[in-house]
Amino acid sequence: MEGKLLEIKNVAIDKLNSAENLKEVEDVRVAYLGKKGELTLVLREMGKLSKEERPIVGALANEVRNEIEDNIAKKTKDLKNILLNEQLKDERIDITLKKNNRVIGHEHPLQKTLEELEDLFIRMGFTVYEGPEVESVENNFDLLNAPQNHPSRDLSDTFYIDEKTLLRTQTSPVQIRAMKEHGAPLRMICPGRVFRSDEVDATHSPMFHQLEGLIVDKNISLANLFETLNIVVKSLFGDEIKTRFRPHYFPFTEPSAEVDATCMVCGGKGCSSCNNTGWSMELLGCGMVHPNVLRNCGIDPEVYSGFAFGMGIDRIAMVKYGITDIRLLFDNDARFLNQF
User: Fold this and answer.
1) Where does this polypeptide localize (predicted)?
2) 310-340 burial, b for 16+ CB within 10 Å, e for fewer?
């Protein structure tokens, strides 16, 4: 019987060593340690042994059982580790895997120009105001002293929603709202989008960005306007830039002027970029606030005076960065934006 027990142990261990999966290990356990297993059947025959042989065979049988169980436990653990490693390998995320670098965006030249303008005017003591893009005809035209037959009121120039409502054609209505609410003295700028029924080309767009400024106080003169705008232009484009004020007409200012700056390319000497004039495109319009506008907002023009100015932020950006086509500002072309 001792030989039988040793044979059972050796065969069981050999089968365990050659087992390739957990099912084969379980089959070995059942075949040798189960209720009808070979070791169990041998132990049932111990009653036929003499009193002297029973302790010896019993001790050997327990040793065989323990050794088989230890081998089963070890084999089971090894196979489970193999399965776990295979699972980890299949589900592994390689955090070292090379990938395309994330593309970092660039600040839009329009936004850069707007922020630079706002910072400049805030340093000069102006307050930033905002207003609605859908505006009343009264604020956009009537209170700004625009005649009823003024071309800007035509359907060919303005987007009307109904007879009394439109998409604002300028940010001047924000000035009207501010003067009616706060009165004088007042020092403000109002940037934002405006809308006009223009054909799209290199210098025109039906939607563009404008920044208008207004100062209303006692003893404000044309000299204050010129000096303020000279400071603005030189701060934006450099101290060597010169300005030119040309007489013009705006219904809400009197007198009025348009402002040009010397060509950024040739410095005023004349080149192909400025058609040999030495001057860049018109930068902005300005003038002394018309007394009727002050009066319409409840401000006494006999006590207060003021000046106003308006500039296209898109146009300032084009001059500042040498952009020749306004459509580039709205195309969202990364090749263009990456230059800024």
Assistant:
1) Cytoplasm
2) bbbbbbbbbbebebeebebbeeeeeebbeee
Q: Determine the Cα–Cα distance for residues 237 and 223; give it in Å rounded to an integer.
A: 21
For the stretch 90-130, pLDDT in tens is 887 777 767 777 777 788 999 999 999 999 999 999 999 99
Q: Which one-letter DSSP state was computed for residue 279?
A: B
Among the ranges given (47-51, 85-89, 192-196, 287-291), the one the predictor scored with the smallest mean pLDDT: 47-51
Structure tokens at 155: 């359907």
258 Cβ contact list (under 8 Å, min separation 6): 245, 246, 248, 282, 284, 285, 286
Q: What is the pLDDT of residues 7-48, one digit of tens each?
A: 777 887 888 888 888 888 888 888 877 777 777 777 666 666
Lowest-pLDDT choice from 35-49, 167-181, 277-291, 307-321 = 35-49
Beta strand 127-128 with 186-195: parallel, antiparallel or unpaired?
Answer: parallel
Which letter does DSSP use for residue 199 in this model?
P
Q: Per CATH, the architecture of 109-337 is what?
A: 2-Layer Sandwich (3.30)
How much helix, strand and coil, in percent to the nearest 5, is found in the chain? 45, 20, 35
pTM exceeding the 0.70 threshold for the entire prediction:
no
The CA-CA-CA angle for residues 220, 223, 224, to 5°, reads: 50
The phi and psi torsions of 96 (rounded to 5 degrees) equal: -95, 0
Distance, in Å, from the CA atom of 42 to the CA atom of 181, rounded to the nearest integer, reads 108
Chain-centroid distance of CA 59 in Å reads 79
Token couple for 27? 């089959």
For residue 290, pLDDT over 90 is answered with yes
Q: Judge whether 254 is annotated as a binding position.
A: yes
In the block, tokens 């209303």 appear at 216
Work out the end-to-end distance of the chain between its first and last CA atoms, rounded to an integer number of angstroms: 93
Residue 135's DSSP bridge partners are 166
Distance between CA atoms of residues 298 and 126, nearest Å:
21
